[in-house]
Write a sequence for this structure.
């Protein structure tokens, strides 16, 4: 039987590259498209030479031409860490809006199934806790995070419109905080920031008083959930994340302990609109995908720390 083909935008990024690995391991052909703005060829280096893998360097906010049959389009291109989208506000808005439009256009042209990488940021600074998919969110459209949050909310809206108006098959995953190998050490997110500070003996910068919470999912669990969603019949958004919640202060202390670091925590200003709490309600994913995370934080952090150590040794 002929292998199916998947296009992954943002395929050289942290999540995109793990998704390429997963799709190839499930016997699909993969066309990875990335402009390498925040993605990195190192993440897909091991895939060159695989005859089922093709890389195209391209900015998906522009028209995308892909030859041949395509069965799935998975749209993962976007800056995704707060400091990235603060540095790249226009690109973030463009890839979430124009990029999603182009990726949907490709899916329509090829009669392919489309999956959108959406985000827990669609819930903003939530007033409901934990967050179920039915919650419409509390987003400041004109704040610094608005460029990401509103782009992703627009992306969800246009995805639903293509489904309703053009009848294309679409799936939407709302991704919560995820960690694992291939995260960039300098991407500014809490885990890579804390680990590089701890390993370099620098102060650990906790923003605010550290009482804000997050719930961290190991990357293999997340990718497994996304793959199940892709193959499911669910047309409306599904949260994928790990519901085990922790304060950022506790998280910093955990990193200090795991790295045997003598670093001290310092408290700095809390960024504007930083969500005070975040925890996915995964009732829907459990019920319709038979999915729940399996990797404990202690286990996932160990693997990720080993990866970060190797990266630091290289530099
Ligand atoms: N954070 C922190 N110190 C850092 C980086 C992040 O205290 O050096 C906090 C940040 O303010 C937020 C949480 O850690 O409350 C998670 O931030 P991250 O950038 O990982 O992603 P977010 O969940 O905000 O999108």
């Amino acid at each position: 039987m002929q292998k199916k083909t998947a296009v992954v935008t943002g395929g050289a990024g942290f999540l995109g590259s793990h998704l390429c690995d997963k799709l190839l391991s499930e016997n699909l052909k993969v066309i990875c498209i990335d402009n390498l703005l925040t993605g990195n060829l190192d993440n897909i280096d091991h895939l060159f030479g695989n005859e089922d893998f093709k890389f195209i360097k391209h900015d998906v906010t522009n028209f995308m031409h892909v030859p041949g049959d395509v069965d799935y389009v998975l749209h993962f291109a976007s800056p995704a860490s707060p400091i990235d989208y603060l540095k790249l506000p226009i690109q973030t808005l463009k890839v979430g809006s124009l990029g999603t439009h182009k990726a949907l256009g490709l899916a329509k042209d090829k009669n392919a199934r489309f999956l959108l990488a959406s985000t827990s940021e669609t819930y903003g600074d939530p007033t409901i806790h934990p967050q179920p998919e039915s919650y419409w969110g509390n987003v400041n459209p004109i704040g610094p995070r608005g460029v990401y949050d509103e782009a992703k909310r627009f992306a969800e809206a246009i995805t639903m419109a293509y489904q309703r108006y053009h009848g294309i098959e679409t799936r939407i995953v709302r991704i919560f905080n995820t960690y694992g190998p291939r995260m960039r050490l300098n991407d500014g997110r809490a885990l890579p920031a804390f680990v590089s500070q701890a390993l370099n003996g620098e102060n650990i910068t906790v923003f605010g008083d550290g009482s804000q919470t997050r719930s961290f999912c190991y990357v293999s669990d997340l990718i497994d959930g996304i793959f199940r969603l892709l193959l499911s019949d669910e047309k409306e958004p599904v949260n994928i994340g790990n519901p085990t919640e922790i304060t950022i202060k506790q998280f910093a202390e955990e990193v200090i302990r795991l790295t045997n670091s003598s670093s001290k925590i310092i408290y700095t200003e809390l960024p504007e609109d930083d969500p005070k709490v975040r925890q996915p309600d995964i009732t829907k994913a459990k019920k319709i995908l038979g999915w729940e995370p399996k990797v404990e934080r202690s286990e996932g952090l160990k693997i990720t720390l080993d990866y970060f150590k190797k990266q630091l040794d290289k530099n």
Remarks:
- The first helix runs from residue 14 to 25.
- The chain has two domains: 5-179+218-242+281-294, 190-211+245-279+299-314.
- The pocket of uridine-5'-diphosphate is lined by residues 81-82, 177, 189-190, 193, 205-207, 212, 214, 248, 271, 274 (CB under 6 Å).
- The first strand starts at residue 5 and ends at 9.
